[in-house]
Design brief:
single chain, 162 residues, six-stranded antiparallel sheet, two-stranded antiparallel sheet, globular
C-alpha cells in the first residue's frame, strides 16, 4: 500500500531504537514528557507515528505522559497501562527494531500498521499491529485490542522493508 518513509534513520533515545524522518516526522520531541509529535498526514507518517508512540509507551521512561498526550485511550485503558506497564529494560534490546511493515488500512483519519521485528533466536519474526487516528493535527494511538498481541511470522512476504 505504501513505500517506506524516505530517508528514515533509527536513533537511540533512552536506549530505544526509534524511527525518524525529515519528511514524515516526528518534527519535535519534548524531553520532559517524552512525546514525539509532528507527523505527516500520510501512510508513511502513520507508520512512523504508530511505532514511535507504542514503543515510547512500552519501553520509555515517560510512558504515562505519552499515554496522556498521544493516545485516545479511554480512562480505563489509560489507567491500566499506567498501573501495569512494569519496568522493562530497553537497553537489553540494543538496536533491535522492525525490519519491515505493512499498512493494513489507511484513511486520512485512521491507519492500521503491522510491524515485523526479527527474532534473533530462530530466524522468524515477531509481529505487532497498531492503529492510529488523526486528531488535534497529529497521529494518536488507539488502545490495542487482541489483534495487537504478538504473532510469530516465518516470512515477511507482502511487507515493505524499512
Amino acid at each position: 500500500m505504501t513505500g517506506a518513509p524516505a530517508d528514515l534513520v533509527w536513533r537511540q533515545e533512552d536506549s530505544i531504537a526509534l524511527p525518524f524522518t525529515a519528511a514524515d516526522g516526528p518534527r519535535s520531541v519534548n524531553e520532559t514528557s517524552g512525546a514525539a509529535t509532528g507527523y505527516s498526514r500520510t501512510p508513511q507518517g502513520a507508520v512512523v507515528a504508530a511505532y514511535q508512540i507504542a514503543t515510547r509507551i512500552a519501553l520509555g521512561p515517560h510512558y504515562a505522559e505519552v499515554v496522556d498526550a498521544q493516545t485516545v485511550f479511554d480512562a480505563s485503558a489509560a489507567a491500566n497501562v499506567k498501573q501495569h506497564r512494569g519496568s522493562p529494560d530497553p537497553s537489553a534490546l540494543g538496536d533491535v527494531h522492525p525490519s519491515a511493515f505493512k499498512v493494513l488500512a489507511y484513511l486520512p483519519s485512521q491507519a492500521t500498521v503491522q510491524y515485523a521485528l526479527p527474532n534473533p533466536f530462530d530466524g522468524s519474526y515477531n509481529s505487532y499491529q497498531f492503529t492510529v487516528v488523526w486528531t488535534d493535527d497529529d497521529w494518536k494511538l488507539v488502545a490495542p485490542s487482541e489483534t495487537a498481541a504478538a504473532q510469530s511470522l516465518s516470512r515477511v512476504d507482502g511487507f515493505t522493508p524499512f
